[in-house]
């Protein structure tokens, strides 16, 4: 366990000052920034009715932006994380360190998942900051009179996290197989384009991983529904299968 | 003497038809500096990768410190420092951050990074990003990464690549110090004999995936006398030729010099003794031995 923690820390050190790091921080700020501009220029459209929480609409807009942007972010971020090793020609050096291949694999996987979680948390934080700024700019929008609905944030976080797991696992597996960043980006962009064409739930889309985040568009929490929807269970299956494939590939591979 | 590196009949090819490494066997004892020589493309790096378990041999086996090398033998690497081909460095990080990665994984004291930076003479550049480094500085930092944890076995693939003459001398002195003071066993590859001959105790020369010479440095040096020619000048070259022709092949006999074939230091001494016993004055005696570079080039068919 100590090996895994140390390796995980070194993975985070490697991400310092990288494009993946700045993409996570600045990428998370893009949607809240657009929301601030939209609210400031069209504030009259957003004045809430009495006793209506304005944060619900603000976060609903942020969720939609996040759902569309996050797959792109993940594809690019995972590709960049693997590029750090490929560019430094570092696999051969990593594999002659006194750690098992399982530690290397899970250390890197944890670092990728940490970046995805950081992106999500930062997005929520920047959206909250955006609400506060808008509230200070126009008191009529009533952001300072209410608080965001914590349950909605938590529920969305869990649902979006499950929905993106398939994409994370597929691109993590691709990271070991394909050295060229452009190729992995190409696969991801083609997947997203096809997902948009599939236009929502049902049919083939339920088995197409890139479509899962899009299925959460216009998200409304429904406490009475089951734990997860069907496509989310499929996402979990994809995650397990591709994670295993990635691990087997990495464990067996000899780096030429 | 304990065997630190042992390889038996190693064979490997990136494509099945072509064997990059063909039935290579080698043993490196504790405390040796093994110079692994060969021209570019001879199979040096592939052999090193096989020794470190980065490639799986098609035939043969490798043992380090008496334990067979496999994917599961990662604990062995706490005793080994390696630099394979170009140093693997993260250019967006500083020198000390690059070392910090290895230090944490090897669970070493925080002071170890500055210690190895001092050894390779990069203390002043510790906080500079590696992308600002020259090729020589990168090479030295790669060496510092390999030195983390005071390894018992150091495997260095062309460690002086890109270094200026001063840097080459520094690396040579460093390797000698590590070997003499800490007993570190060193395997270093190179395609330049002159670079290796000054430090190595043992030499292996590889060509087209096969060893063409393996032995001590002395054994290689003794080869330089094979088929060498002695140039002689005496007070009577005609008489000298007569004295020597019963024992040696006299190649040329002029008024100025005589050329005689000799194949060892002992024969040179005997020639001198024969001439003196015959009452001749020897003014000049020079062996035009093959230099090691020529021997190396002959061995690798260049």
Automatic annotation (TrEMBL), chain A:
The alphabetized UniProt keywords are: Membrane, Transmembrane, Transmembrane helix
**Stored Pfam families:** ABC2_membrane_4 (PF12730)
User: Is Transmembrane helix tagged as a keyword?
Assistant: yes
* Membrane-spanning residues: 20-42, 62-82, 103-130, 150-174, 181-200, 230-250
Protein name per UniProt: ABC-2 type transport system permease protein
TrEMBL record, chain B:
SMART domains, sorted: AAA
In what residue span(s) does the ABC transporter domain sit? Answer: 5-233
This protein's superkingdom?
Bacteria
Instruction: Fetch the SUPFAM superfamilies from UniProt.
Output: P-loop containing nucleoside triphosphate hydrolases (SSF52540)
Key words of the record: ATP-binding, Nucleotide-binding, Transport
Q: Which GO terms describe its molecular function?
A: ATP binding; ATP hydrolysis activity
Glycoprotein is among the record's keywords: no
Instruction: Give the matching InterPro entries.
Output: AAA+_ATPase (IPR003593), ABC_transporter-like_ATP-bd (IPR003439), ABC_transporter-like_CS (IPR017871), P-loop_NTPase (IPR027417)
Pfam families, from UniProt?
ABC_tran
What family is reported? Belongs to the ABC transporter superfamily.
Q: Can you name this protein? A: ABC-2 type transport system ATP-binding protein
Native source organism of the sequence: Dyadobacter soli
